[in-house]
Amino acid sequence: MSADRRDGFRSEIREAGDPPEATARVVDAAGTEDERVVEAALRPRRLAEFPGQPRVRDQLGLVLEAARRRGTPPDHVLLSGPPGLGKTTLAMIVAAELERPIRVTSGPAIQHAGDLAAVLSSLDEGEVLFLDEIHRMSRSAEEMLYLAMEDFRVDVVVGKGPGATAIPLELPPFTVVGATTRAGLLPAPLRDRFGFTGHLDFYETTDLVTILHRSAGLLGVDADEPGITEVAGRSRGTPRIANRLLRRVRDWAQVHGEGHVDHHAAREALALFDVDDAGLDRLDRAVLQALCRRFGGGPVGLSTLAVSVGEEADTVETVAEPYLVREGYMSRTPRGRAATARAWQHLGLTPPVDAPQQAALPLADDGPGRLEG
Ligand SMILES: Nc1ncnc2c1ncn2[C@@H]1O[C@H](COP(=O)(O)OP(=O)(O)OP(=O)(O)O)[C@@H](O)[C@H]1O
Q: Which HAMAP family would you find in this protein's record (predicted)?
């Protein structure tokens, strides 16, 4: 994620000359460095403790149990889906269920085939290799990985130019768990090496309630059902956001009360952090406001829309748009972005009688695509 997305947004519709505003976004589904420790403490350790994603959980449970009974490593596992839904957590669970160690690395850390060869050649039998952001590995490393996944072998190239020789190196059987937010970006030969693919979807509010009760217990937060439910309903179907909002509500409750997270504390704290009833923040609302108020509901080009909210087109497209489209506030049409009836309703505005009805196009893959500039 770019520093721009992680560090700050100027997320209100502003008039020219207004000073830029830099605040971290509390509903950003991407994790931050600071959150790593608390996130690690909140991860469920075993499949039976993992709420939500029933299909993936049951399928993965079957694959792991069968491998355990056979006494062989399971097929390689690919986990795809938006950030913050539990891919890393599930990778850790795979290793825990197999009672094997896990080695953690990521696509951006493996820029050369040699980096991957070093990791692969040090794996023990049955070890789990977690490759986060696997779609960001270099092409040469990807090619080495195909071979390693299929034949448990790597060819280590020694020397350069015409004198270079490939020395085959046998590897003990191991299991790759790959995670990606953009499964569509993986080349087919790599995708095909995964015997099991699980796609994680946004969580139901009831599952987030379960997750939040568990997190509150682990964090020692005294929270009641209405408080938890309020937080869950504004968490955009994402456990990472739910856990973060819970921590902010806890902060509010500690400063303004006895530390009890109830409905009132949740509403006050989330209002302070600009998260509305639907989980939309200022950037989301600014985009909808611009679409409805300035462009009569659209369609309008992405760049024009972005300029009107004082943001980069990329920020609008990758940060605000996926959730707004998924939740039916906005549609992507061949002629640009358009507000839906739900957007007008959410803003408490009446659409013009001649507002064009735009058919929504699905997002390509599980991430944003670009239809126009
Ligand atoms: N099903 C779940 N139950 C409880 N907590 C969960 C669940 N899924 C995710 N979480 C929590 O949400 C946080 C983020 O999860 P995780 O790091 O596994 O997401 P991710 O999909 O790997 O994200 P990214 O794509 O950014 O790497 C962690 O604190 C984790 O404990």
A: DNA_HJ_migration_RuvB
